[in-house]
């Protein structure tokens, strides 16, 4: 890439970076190309009426010069000058954010940031869940069950890593085993559809727990994913244990499907708090069995490594890497950059 192109791609420091999820928003400031990352600030989206208010509150508490640029990753598709989040009432209006002193604003999908994190983070932030060794410069995929289900690809071309955003969390998901055919009809559908996000996210885990309880005529006393997860991992509730087992199996199936799409010899990466909390369940073998059960390509699937990203703020690490050296990544900013 030419120096002129590098200049046009670069951002003015300090750069505000933000990972905006359905429940929490995580911010930090990158002060310079060689400066350490600023201390992250995590806020609940429910505590602020708008993202503008959240950024104002953070800026008021900051020591040092105000950010001149912003790179925000949001949980939802980025189309036009008004960007609603999928699982949060915030609407990002980049032109309006200029009133906060931000002269250059890029808005990405949140799972583009998660994909960038795969490149930015080292082995110390990865927990391996079977498979072989990743092939250098081969395709990768990222999945993250959280408030929703995020999915993204990462491909290497023309000397750069290119994140591929999408809405893969809304793909159909269906039953395979006799037990699935008993339980799945009782999982909440949306307009007649059962998508991955109805199972593979926090509320999805609760959906499955309730469906298992209803199928067996047992009471469903738990109402949060944290309760279900804890009860399952501590083996004190058979309904919760089965719900988590179904969750892990479906995550393996979906991860395997996406890995086939991208032929992900570079690895499959699970992100977010849920994946980090259920590592023991992911290591029981059910996940890998479902992931590899892709005849006629089971042998290929067995070679693909799967990792849980254990860094608590991986997306911010990915955004910080992009903020410092944007020319090393093939991020499409057309229609998503305001300056």
TrEMBL record:
InterPro entries: ATPase_NBD, Bacterial_glucokinase, Glucokinase. It comes from the Bacteria. Its EC number is 2.7.1.2. It catalyses: D-glucose + ATP = D-glucose 6-phosphate + ADP + H(+). It is found in: Cytoplasm. GO terms for molecular function: ATP binding; D-glucose binding; glucokinase activity. One of its GO terms (biological process) is glycolytic process. Pfam families: Glucokinase. GO terms for cellular component: cytosol. It is an enzyme of class 2 (transferase). Keywords: ATP-binding, Cytoplasm, Glycolysis, Kinase, Nucleotide-binding, Transferase. Its main location: cytoplasm. ATP binds at residues 18-23. The keyword Transferase applies. Belongs to the bacterial glucokinase family. This is Glucokinase.
């Amino acid at each position: 890439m030419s120096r002129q192109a590098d200049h046009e791609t670069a951002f003015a420091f300090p750069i505000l970076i933000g990972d905006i999820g359905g429940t929490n928003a995580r911010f930090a400031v990158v002060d310079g190309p060689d400066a350490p990352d600023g201390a992250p600030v995590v806020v609940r989206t429910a505590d602020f009426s708008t993202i503008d208010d959240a950024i104002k509150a953070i800026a008021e508490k900051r020591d040092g010069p105000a950010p001149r640029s912003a790179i925000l990753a949001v949980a939802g598709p980025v189309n036009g000058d008004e960007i609603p989040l999928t699982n949060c009432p915030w609407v990002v209006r980049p032109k309006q954010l200029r009133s906060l002193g931000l002269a250059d604003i890029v808005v990405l999908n949140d799972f583009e940031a998660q994909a960038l994190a795969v490149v930015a983070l080292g082995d110390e932030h990865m927990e391996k869940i079977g498979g072989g060794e990743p092939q250098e410069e081969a395709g990768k995929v990222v999945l993250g069950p959280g408030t929703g289900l995020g999915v993204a690809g990462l491909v290497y071309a023309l000397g750069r890593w290119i994140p591929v955003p999408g809405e893969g969390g809304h793909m159909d998901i269906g039953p395979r085993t006799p037990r699935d055919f008993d339980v799945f009809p009782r999982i909440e559908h949306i307009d007649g559809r059962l998508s991955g996000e109805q199972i593979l996210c926090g509320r999805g885990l609760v959906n499955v727990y309730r469906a298992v309880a209803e199928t067996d005529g047992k009471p469903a006393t738990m109402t949060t994913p944290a309760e279900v997860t804890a009860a399952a991992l501590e083996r004190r509730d058979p309904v919760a244990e089965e719900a988590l087992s179904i969750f892990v199996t479906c995550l393996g199936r979906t991860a395997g499907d996406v890995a086939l799409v991208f032929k992900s010899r570079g690895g499959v990466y699970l992100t977010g708090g849920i994946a980090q909390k259920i590592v023991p369940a992911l290591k029981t073998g059910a996940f890998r069995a479902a992931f590899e059960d892709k005849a006629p390509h089971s042998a290929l699937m067995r070679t693909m490594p799967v990792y849980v990203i254990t860094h608590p703020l991986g997306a911010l690490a990915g955004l910080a890497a992009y903020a410092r050296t944007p020319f090393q990544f093939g991020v499409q900013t057309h229609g998503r950059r305001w300056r």
